[in-house]
Design brief:
The protein is α+β, with helices and mostly antiparallel strands. The chain has helices spanning 17-30, 41-47, 57-83, 106-115, 120-124, 158-175, 190-204, 282-288, 359-362, and strands spanning 4-11, 34-38, 89-94, 129-133, 181-184, 209-210, 216-221, 229-238, 244-253, 258-269, 272-280, 299-308, 311-318, 326-330, 345-350. Strand 8 (229-238) and strand 9 form a beta hairpin. It is globular.
């Protein structure tokens, strides 16, 4: 059976998904992968005459239920084809099952998933990675357009931009809890956004990647944070061979969702590494803790994730022995780009590339 990876390419309105899909197909086909793309199911139904803005709630409900059932069936059919391929396979879903929940009331979503014999946790686990492209309505408004999608209801005016931003955040929230959710920023240069997509997929496929440093800053919070997605993180480093870093992370959210991830980074050459990660069940997590590095303490921190002006940030407030340390990390902003620092954050010191502040070193017992 072929080695198969399945990812979701999602995002808010006018995020660049169509262009990204073309780049993905071309790039990974050239590397010897068989690439399948599962079409965007909601668009199929919209083109067929269904409208999620219909005032007929029964029609709305039946439409969303049909979209979920069709999405599941299509993915299963593509998976069966992938299983008989002789080359490694990449299945790219143009939106995934959890996107549907962003358009529904929680109780309606629970009802249609139950009728389909599944739930939100099981649906997230269908995929190896989720790549969320931030809508141009947030930080790249000059590029926002409805011309590329005749079924888009969020028009290019102030109200449409506001709706697009809200929808973008709802889609992100729907996927929270997936261990490999990556948010792809808007960039000064659209090419950088596309390159980040290729880089993140290459990481999922286990291809060697150039080591890149996310930009990090020691900061002070000076005002009210916007809407954030909060999670508690407990990070433990395991005993490993030289040149390899093994991390065990437990991440929990207010809704009771808990995800354990085993992550390995291995240097393969000057400036290159292979990074792999897998989700592990609670029993295996507890077992792996027996391999904890005795020279390092576990790191505990509150992570608050948010998007500001089209750029994704993670704000880590450390607990325990590291209490008082607050680090802001940008996600996917290149060295040549400006960081759109929020007004409620005061930067005290940039620590990008400063090994003293790597979590691996912060964990050292002193």
């Amino acid at each position: 059976m072929a080695n198969i990876k399945k990812i979701v390419l999602t995002g808010g309105p006018c995020a660049g998904k169509t262009t990204a899909l073309v780049r993905i197909i071309e790039h990974f086909n050239s590397l010897g992968f068989k690439v399948f793309t599962v079409p965007e199911v909601p668009t199929l139904y919209s083109l067929g005459g269904w409208n999620y803005l219909t005032p007929n709630r029964r029609l709305y409900y039946e439409g969303e239920r049909a979209i979920l059932e069709t999405q599941l069936a299509l993915e299963n059919h593509f998976l069966r084809m992938a299983e008989v391929c002789t080359k490694p396979v990449l299945i790219v879903c143009d939106r995934g099952t959890m996107d549907i929940s962003a358009y529904m009331k929680p109780e309606e979503w629970e009802d249609i998933t139950a009728k389909a014999g599944t739930n939100s946790n099981q649906l997230r686990e269908r995929y190896d990675a989720i790549l969320h492209l931030v809508s141009a309505a947030d930080g790249a408004e000059q590029f926002y357009t409805t011309a590329t999608n005749s079924t888009r209801y969020e028009k290019a005016d102030e109200e449409g931009l506001r709706l697009a931003r809200e929808l973008d955040k709802k889609v992100v929230k729907a996927w929270m809890g997936h261990p490999h959710l990556r948010i792809i920023n808007n960039h000064d240069d659209f090419e950088n956004k596309m390159n980040r997509v290729i880089r993140e997929i290459s990481n999922v496929l286990g291809l060697p990647q150039r080591v890149t440093e996310e930009r990090k800053y020691i900061v002070e919070i000076t005002g009210q944070l916007p809407e954030t997605v909060d999670s508690e993180i407990l990070q433990t480093y395991l005993v490993s061979e030289p040149g390899t870093e093994v991390r065990l992370r437990r991440r929990s959210w207010k809704n009771g969702k808990v995800v354990n991830v085993h992550n390995t980074k291995k240097r393969t050459g000057p400036g290159e590494q292979i990074e792999t990660e897998r989700q592990v069940e609670n029993a295996l997590y507890e077992s792996l803790l027996q391999q904890a590095d005795p020279y390092r303490q576990s790191i505990s921190k509150l992570r608050q994730s948010f998007i500001w002006k089209g750029q994704c940030f993670e704000l880590d407030t450390y607990r325990g022995p590291l209490e008082g340390l607050v680090i802001l990390e940008t996600k996917g902003i290149t060295d040549a780009e400006n960081v759109n620092f929020p007004p409620f954050i005061r930067v005290k010191k940039e620590i990008t590339g400063n090994k003293e502040y790597y979590n691996y070193n912060l964990a050292l017992k002193r």
